[in-house]
Write a structure and sequence with these properties.
Elements (H helix, E strand, L loop, with lengths): L2 E13 L4 E3 L4 E2 L3 E17 L7 E4 L2 E2 L2 H18 L5 E8 L8 H16 L6 H11 L3 H4 L4 E5 L8 E4 L8 E7 L9 H11 L3 H21 L2 H20 L10 H15 L5 E4 L5 E6 L3 H11 L3 E5 L6 E6 L1
Parallel strand pairs: 5-7
Antiparallel strand pairs: 1-4, 1-14, 2-3, 4-7, 4-8, 5-6, 8-9, 10-12, 10-13, 11-12
This protein binds (3R)-3-hydroxy-3-methyl-5-(phosphonooxy)pentanoic acid.
Protein name: diphosphomevalonate decarboxylase
Pfam families: MDD_C, MVD-like_N
GO molecular function: ATP binding; diphosphomevalonate decarboxylase activity
Protein backbone atom coordinates (compact mmCIF):
# COMPACT_ATOMS: atom_id res chain seq x y z
CA UNK A 1 0.00 0.00 0.00
CA UNK A 2 1.44 3.36 -1.06
CA UNK A 3 1.94 5.87 1.75
CA UNK A 4 2.73 9.42 0.62
CA UNK A 5 3.68 12.49 2.66
CA UNK A 6 3.32 15.94 1.12
CA UNK A 7 4.30 19.32 2.51
CA UNK A 8 2.43 22.52 1.64
CA UNK A 9 3.05 26.01 2.96
CA UNK A 10 0.51 28.52 4.16
CA UNK A 11 -0.22 31.52 1.99
CA UNK A 12 -1.44 34.93 3.05
CA UNK A 13 -3.67 36.85 0.65
CA UNK A 14 -2.54 40.32 -0.36
CA UNK A 15 -5.80 40.70 -2.30
CA UNK A 16 -8.38 38.77 -0.28
CA UNK A 17 -10.80 36.04 -1.18
CA UNK A 18 -13.81 36.53 1.07
CA UNK A 19 -17.01 35.14 -0.39
CA UNK A 20 -18.16 32.42 -2.73
CA UNK A 21 -20.02 32.80 -6.01
CA UNK A 22 -20.69 29.03 -5.96
CA UNK A 23 -20.40 27.30 -2.56
CA UNK A 24 -20.67 23.80 -4.06
CA UNK A 25 -17.80 24.24 -6.55
CA UNK A 26 -16.04 26.74 -4.28
CA UNK A 27 -15.89 29.40 -6.96
CA UNK A 28 -14.94 32.75 -5.39
CA UNK A 29 -16.67 36.06 -5.91
CA UNK A 30 -13.38 37.65 -7.00
CA UNK A 31 -9.83 36.79 -8.00
CA UNK A 32 -7.18 37.00 -5.26
CA UNK A 33 -3.39 37.32 -4.97
CA UNK A 34 -1.20 35.77 -2.28
CA UNK A 35 2.26 35.19 -0.89
CA UNK A 36 3.21 31.66 0.22
CA UNK A 37 5.32 31.72 3.40
CA UNK A 38 8.35 29.59 4.27
CA UNK A 39 7.74 29.38 8.04
CA UNK A 40 4.25 27.87 8.27
CA UNK A 41 3.37 24.53 6.68
CA UNK A 42 1.53 21.24 7.00
CA UNK A 43 2.96 17.74 6.52
CA UNK A 44 0.22 15.29 5.57
CA UNK A 45 0.55 11.53 5.09
CA UNK A 46 -2.14 9.56 3.27
CA UNK A 47 -2.62 5.87 2.53
CA UNK A 48 -5.67 4.08 1.15
CA UNK A 49 -6.78 0.65 2.37
CA UNK A 50 -8.06 -1.98 -0.03
CA UNK A 51 -11.41 -2.13 1.79
CA UNK A 52 -14.07 0.54 1.98
CA UNK A 53 -14.94 1.95 5.41
CA UNK A 54 -14.61 5.09 7.49
CA UNK A 55 -11.72 7.44 6.82
CA UNK A 56 -9.40 8.12 9.77
CA UNK A 57 -7.99 11.58 10.41
CA UNK A 58 -5.25 12.20 12.96
CA UNK A 59 -4.31 15.86 13.46
CA UNK A 60 -1.15 16.68 15.43
CA UNK A 61 -1.23 13.18 16.94
CA UNK A 62 -4.89 13.35 18.02
CA UNK A 63 -7.50 11.16 16.34
CA UNK A 64 -10.38 13.41 15.25
CA UNK A 65 -14.08 12.77 15.83
CA UNK A 66 -16.35 11.70 12.96
CA UNK A 67 -17.74 15.26 12.90
CA UNK A 68 -14.26 16.79 12.61
CA UNK A 69 -13.37 14.22 9.94
CA UNK A 70 -16.42 15.02 7.79
CA UNK A 71 -14.76 17.76 5.73
CA UNK A 72 -11.72 15.56 5.08
CA UNK A 73 -14.02 12.66 4.21
CA UNK A 74 -15.93 14.74 1.64
CA UNK A 75 -12.67 15.87 0.10
CA UNK A 76 -11.38 12.28 -0.08
CA UNK A 77 -14.61 11.32 -1.87
CA UNK A 78 -13.60 13.77 -4.62
CA UNK A 79 -10.17 12.11 -4.78
CA UNK A 80 -11.79 8.65 -4.93
CA UNK A 81 -14.17 9.77 -7.68
CA UNK A 82 -11.31 11.21 -9.68
CA UNK A 83 -8.76 8.42 -9.28
CA UNK A 84 -10.96 5.33 -9.07
CA UNK A 85 -9.50 4.31 -5.69
CA UNK A 86 -12.27 2.90 -3.48
CA UNK A 87 -10.79 2.12 -0.09
CA UNK A 88 -10.90 4.14 3.12
CA UNK A 89 -8.01 6.47 3.84
CA UNK A 90 -5.82 7.14 6.83
CA UNK A 91 -4.72 10.79 6.98
CA UNK A 92 -2.11 11.99 9.45
CA UNK A 93 -1.40 15.69 9.44
CA UNK A 94 1.10 17.71 11.43
CA UNK A 95 0.48 21.42 11.35
CA UNK A 96 3.42 23.76 11.69
CA UNK A 97 1.00 26.69 11.88
CA UNK A 98 -0.79 28.13 14.92
CA UNK A 99 -4.16 26.47 14.34
CA UNK A 100 -7.28 28.32 13.16
CA UNK A 101 -6.30 31.79 14.31
CA UNK A 102 -6.14 33.41 10.92
CA UNK A 103 -2.74 32.11 9.94
CA UNK A 104 -4.55 30.33 7.13
CA UNK A 105 -3.99 26.80 8.37
CA UNK A 106 -6.61 25.48 5.95
CA UNK A 107 -4.61 26.72 2.96
CA UNK A 108 -1.62 24.50 3.72
CA UNK A 109 -3.82 21.68 5.06
CA UNK A 110 -5.90 21.12 1.93
CA UNK A 111 -3.01 21.76 -0.47
CA UNK A 112 -0.95 19.08 1.31
CA UNK A 113 -3.95 16.73 1.41
CA UNK A 114 -4.70 17.20 -2.30
CA UNK A 115 -1.14 16.31 -3.24
CA UNK A 116 -0.63 13.44 -0.76
CA UNK A 117 -4.03 11.85 -1.42
CA UNK A 118 -3.83 11.89 -5.22
CA UNK A 119 -0.29 10.47 -5.19
CA UNK A 120 -1.30 7.80 -2.64
CA UNK A 121 -4.14 6.92 -5.02
CA UNK A 122 -1.58 6.48 -7.79
CA UNK A 123 -2.50 9.61 -9.77
CA UNK A 124 -0.13 12.37 -10.85
CA UNK A 125 -2.01 15.63 -11.35
CA UNK A 126 -0.54 18.76 -12.92
CA UNK A 127 -0.10 21.77 -10.59
CA UNK A 128 -3.17 23.38 -12.18
CA UNK A 129 -5.28 20.25 -11.63
CA UNK A 130 -4.05 20.06 -8.04
CA UNK A 131 -4.91 23.72 -7.53
CA UNK A 132 -8.48 23.09 -8.77
CA UNK A 133 -8.80 20.05 -6.52
CA UNK A 134 -7.40 21.83 -3.44
CA UNK A 135 -9.97 24.58 -4.06
CA UNK A 136 -12.75 22.13 -3.25
CA UNK A 137 -11.32 21.63 0.26
CA UNK A 138 -10.68 25.26 1.10
CA UNK A 139 -10.57 28.28 -1.19
CA UNK A 140 -7.25 29.58 0.06
CA UNK A 141 -5.66 26.14 -0.58
CA UNK A 142 -6.07 26.81 -4.33
CA UNK A 143 -3.06 29.16 -4.06
CA UNK A 144 -0.88 27.05 -1.69
CA UNK A 145 -0.01 24.57 -4.46
CA UNK A 146 2.40 27.28 -5.64
CA UNK A 147 5.38 28.96 -4.03
CA UNK A 148 6.03 32.70 -3.88
CA UNK A 149 3.32 34.98 -5.23
CA UNK A 150 0.24 33.54 -6.95
CA UNK A 151 -3.05 34.69 -8.42
CA UNK A 152 -6.24 32.65 -8.09
CA UNK A 153 -8.35 33.40 -11.16
CA UNK A 154 -11.93 33.34 -9.98
CA UNK A 155 -13.12 31.64 -13.18
CA UNK A 156 -16.71 30.69 -13.95
CA UNK A 157 -16.69 26.89 -13.60
CA UNK A 158 -14.60 24.05 -12.18
CA UNK A 159 -12.11 24.18 -15.07
CA UNK A 160 -11.47 27.90 -15.09
CA UNK A 161 -11.03 28.57 -11.34
CA UNK A 162 -7.38 27.86 -10.44
CA UNK A 163 -4.23 29.59 -9.23
CA UNK A 164 -0.93 30.11 -10.97
CA UNK A 165 2.36 31.72 -9.97
CA UNK A 166 2.99 35.38 -10.81
CA UNK A 167 6.49 36.84 -11.11
CA UNK A 168 7.93 39.53 -8.90
CA UNK A 169 10.56 42.01 -10.09
CA UNK A 170 14.14 40.77 -9.49
CA UNK A 171 14.69 43.88 -7.37
CA UNK A 172 11.85 42.90 -5.04
CA UNK A 173 12.49 40.49 -2.17
CA UNK A 174 9.28 40.35 -0.17
CA UNK A 175 9.22 39.52 3.53
CA UNK A 176 6.25 39.09 5.82
CA UNK A 177 6.45 39.53 9.58
CA UNK A 178 3.69 37.73 11.50
CA UNK A 179 2.71 39.47 14.74
CA UNK A 180 1.31 36.64 16.89
CA UNK A 181 -1.58 38.00 18.91
CA UNK A 182 -3.74 35.02 19.74
CA UNK A 183 -3.61 31.34 18.78
CA UNK A 184 -6.98 30.36 20.20
CA UNK A 185 -9.63 28.98 17.85
CA UNK A 186 -11.61 31.73 16.19
CA UNK A 187 -15.29 32.30 17.09
CA UNK A 188 -16.55 32.67 13.53
CA UNK A 189 -15.06 30.26 10.98
CA UNK A 190 -14.04 31.71 7.63
CA UNK A 191 -16.77 29.62 6.00
CA UNK A 192 -19.53 31.02 8.23
CA UNK A 193 -18.07 34.51 8.26
CA UNK A 194 -17.88 34.88 4.51
CA UNK A 195 -21.34 33.36 4.02
CA UNK A 196 -22.83 35.88 6.43
CA UNK A 197 -21.03 38.80 4.82
CA UNK A 198 -22.03 37.74 1.29
CA UNK A 199 -25.66 37.34 2.35
CA UNK A 200 -26.10 40.44 4.47
CA UNK A 201 -23.36 43.06 4.17
CA UNK A 202 -24.18 46.05 1.95
CA UNK A 203 -20.42 46.59 1.68
CA UNK A 204 -19.73 43.12 0.24
CA UNK A 205 -20.32 44.00 -3.45
CA UNK A 206 -17.91 46.94 -3.11
CA UNK A 207 -15.28 44.75 -1.46
CA UNK A 208 -15.55 42.11 -4.21
CA UNK A 209 -15.57 44.62 -7.10
CA UNK A 210 -12.54 46.43 -5.68
CA UNK A 211 -10.65 43.15 -5.17
CA UNK A 212 -11.46 42.06 -8.72
CA UNK A 213 -10.06 45.36 -9.98
CA UNK A 214 -7.03 45.30 -7.67
CA UNK A 215 -5.97 41.68 -8.38
CA UNK A 216 -4.52 42.37 -11.88
CA UNK A 217 -3.22 45.73 -10.66
CA UNK A 218 -1.40 43.87 -7.86
CA UNK A 219 0.09 41.45 -10.39
CA UNK A 220 1.41 44.45 -12.36
CA UNK A 221 2.79 46.12 -9.21
CA UNK A 222 4.57 42.86 -8.23
CA UNK A 223 6.11 42.62 -11.72
CA UNK A 224 7.27 46.22 -11.46
CA UNK A 225 8.51 45.84 -7.89
CA UNK A 226 6.46 48.86 -6.82
CA UNK A 227 6.45 48.32 -3.05
CA UNK A 228 4.30 51.33 -2.27
CA UNK A 229 1.54 50.20 -4.65
CA UNK A 230 1.77 46.63 -3.40
CA UNK A 231 1.44 47.83 0.16
CA UNK A 232 -1.47 50.16 -0.53
CA UNK A 233 -3.44 47.46 -2.37
CA UNK A 234 -2.67 45.01 0.44
CA UNK A 235 -3.97 47.25 3.22
CA UNK A 236 -7.00 48.31 1.22
CA UNK A 237 -8.10 44.74 0.52
CA UNK A 238 -7.76 43.68 4.16
CA UNK A 239 -9.53 46.74 5.53
CA UNK A 240 -12.38 46.40 3.03
CA UNK A 241 -12.85 42.73 3.93
CA UNK A 242 -13.01 43.54 7.63
CA UNK A 243 -15.19 46.59 6.99
CA UNK A 244 -17.65 44.37 5.11
CA UNK A 245 -17.77 42.01 8.12
CA UNK A 246 -18.52 44.88 10.47
CA UNK A 247 -21.45 45.85 8.25
CA UNK A 248 -22.90 42.31 8.15
CA UNK A 249 -26.10 41.34 9.97
CA UNK A 250 -25.39 40.53 12.76
CA UNK A 251 -22.04 42.34 12.56
CA UNK A 252 -18.82 40.58 13.54
CA UNK A 253 -15.13 41.24 13.53
CA UNK A 254 -11.82 39.43 13.93
CA UNK A 255 -10.23 42.56 15.39
CA UNK A 256 -9.11 42.16 19.01
CA UNK A 257 -7.89 45.16 21.02
CA UNK A 258 -4.31 44.00 20.45
CA UNK A 259 -4.96 43.94 16.69
CA UNK A 260 -5.56 47.68 16.66
CA UNK A 261 -2.44 48.25 18.76
CA UNK A 262 -0.41 46.21 16.25
CA UNK A 263 -1.98 48.02 13.29
CA UNK A 264 -1.07 51.39 14.85
CA UNK A 265 2.49 50.15 15.40
CA UNK A 266 2.78 49.28 11.72
CA UNK A 267 1.56 52.74 10.80
CA UNK A 268 4.16 54.31 13.11
CA UNK A 269 6.90 52.22 11.50
CA UNK A 270 5.78 53.47 8.10
CA UNK A 271 5.59 57.05 9.29
CA UNK A 272 9.23 56.64 10.35
CA UNK A 273 10.05 56.01 6.67
CA UNK A 274 10.17 52.21 6.46
CA UNK A 275 8.09 50.13 4.00
CA UNK A 276 5.62 48.26 6.25
CA UNK A 277 2.03 47.41 5.34
CA UNK A 278 -0.46 45.44 7.42
CA UNK A 279 -2.88 42.70 6.53
CA UNK A 280 -5.11 40.41 8.56
CA UNK A 281 -7.31 37.37 7.93
CA UNK A 282 -10.00 35.46 9.82
CA UNK A 283 -8.28 35.93 13.17
CA UNK A 284 -6.64 38.68 15.21
CA UNK A 285 -3.02 38.19 14.07
CA UNK A 286 -1.51 40.97 12.00
CA UNK A 287 0.93 40.27 9.18
CA UNK A 288 3.32 42.97 7.99
CA UNK A 289 4.52 43.10 4.42
CA UNK A 290 7.99 44.55 3.87
CA UNK A 291 11.16 43.67 1.95
CA UNK A 292 14.47 41.95 2.70
CA UNK A 293 16.41 45.22 2.78
CA UNK A 294 14.24 46.70 5.51
CA UNK A 295 12.99 43.68 7.43
CA UNK A 296 15.53 43.90 10.29
CA UNK A 297 14.73 47.57 10.84
CA UNK A 298 10.99 46.85 10.68
CA UNK A 299 11.31 44.04 13.25
CA UNK A 300 13.37 46.27 15.57
CA UNK A 301 10.83 49.09 15.26
CA UNK A 302 7.93 46.71 15.96
CA UNK A 303 9.74 45.17 18.94
CA UNK A 304 10.23 48.65 20.37
CA UNK A 305 6.45 49.10 20.46
CA UNK A 306 4.99 45.60 20.96
CA UNK A 307 5.56 42.64 23.30
CA UNK A 308 4.18 40.09 20.83
CA UNK A 309 6.20 37.28 19.30
CA UNK A 310 7.23 38.14 15.75
CA UNK A 311 7.92 35.52 13.07
CA UNK A 312 9.84 36.66 9.99
CA UNK A 313 8.82 34.83 6.81
CA UNK A 314 10.32 34.77 3.32
CA UNK A 315 8.49 33.47 0.25
CA UNK A 316 7.90 29.74 0.67
CA UNK A 317 8.17 26.91 -1.88
CA UNK A 318 5.47 25.09 -3.85
CA UNK A 319 3.75 22.04 -2.38
CA UNK A 320 5.88 18.92 -2.77
CA UNK A 321 6.03 15.22 -1.94
CA UNK A 322 8.60 14.70 0.83
CA UNK A 323 8.26 10.95 1.39
CA UNK A 324 6.84 7.90 -0.38
CA UNK A 325 6.87 4.38 1.06
CA UNK A 326 5.47 1.14 -0.39
O1 LIG B 1 -10.48 29.26 2.25
P1 LIG B 1 -10.46 29.70 3.65
O2 LIG B 1 -11.60 29.15 4.44
O3 LIG B 1 -9.12 29.41 4.28
O4 LIG B 1 -10.67 31.29 3.67
C1 LIG B 1 -9.62 32.17 3.50
C2 LIG B 1 -10.02 33.55 3.78
C3 LIG B 1 -8.89 34.53 4.06
O5 LIG B 1 -7.75 33.88 4.57
C4 LIG B 1 -9.36 35.52 5.10
C5 LIG B 1 -8.52 35.31 2.80
C6 LIG B 1 -7.74 34.59 1.75
O6 LIG B 1 -7.87 34.97 0.58
O7 LIG B 1 -6.97 33.67 2.08
Amino acid sequence: MLKVTARAHTNIALIKYWGKADPELMLPANSSVSLTLDQFYADTTVSFAAETGNDTFVLDGVKQSPAATQRIHQFLDLVRARTGVRGSATVRSVNHVPNAAGLASSSSAFAALALAATRAAGAELSPRELSRLARRGSGSATRSIFGGTAIWHKGHDDDSSFAEPVPTAPSLSLRMVAILIDDRQKDVSSRDGMARTVATSPYFPVFAATAEHDAPAMVAALAQGDMEQIGQFTERSAMMMHGANMAAEPPFTYFAPATLTAWAAVRAVRDAGLPAYATMDAGPNVKVLTDATHVDAVVAALHAQLDNELVVCAPGPAASVIDTTE
